[in-house]
Amino acid sequence: MDNKLMFERSQCPITNGLDIFGDKWTLLIIRDLVLGKRRYQELISSPENIASNILAHRLKRLEVAGLVTRRAYQQKPERYEYVLTEKGKDLKPVLEAISRWGTKHYPGTSVFRAVGQG
Which residue intervals of 22-51 are DSSP H helices? Predict the structure, then answer.
């Protein structure tokens, strides 16, 4: 099989992962989904102040990449919630490792709590 059809830049797994979540916003969106946020308004309210158009674009990219599923929760007006797929949930240990590294090397930072956990 022609590898150019399978991989955008190379066969390196780090490169392929970064092609999906290597920008400054995507892992933060995944973090919020792991923590239990589901709806657009919950995601947009995160303290990093992501712009609405960037959030919409990243959610679409995550859906196309198979990390997120979009489900309607309201018909008029149409509104959606976003849920991590198994592929998306598999990033949880990556986020935990980055979090451990960050708290070790950046004293004074704090890990966000899951939605509903004070």
Answer: 26-34, 40-44
Report whether pLDDT(7) > 90.
no
d(CA 4, CA 76): 43
C-alpha 56: how far from chain center: 12
Q: What angle do CA 6, 10, 13 make, to 5 degrees?
A: 85
Length of the chain in terms of residues written: 118
* Topology of the domain covering 11-100: Arc Repressor Mutant, subunit A (1.10.10)
Count, in order, helices (H) and strands (E) of the chain. Answer: 7, 2
Question: How many CB atoms neighbour CB 78 within 10 A?
Answer: 8
Average pLDDT, the chain: 91
Question: Which tens digits make up the pLDDT trace of 103-115?
Answer: 999 999 988 888 7
Domain boundaries, the chain: 11-100
Neighbouring residues of 85: CB distance < 8 A, sequence distance ≥ 6: 66, 67, 68, 69
Question: Rounded to an integer, what distance in angstroms lies between the CA atom of residue 61 and that of residue 85?
Answer: 14
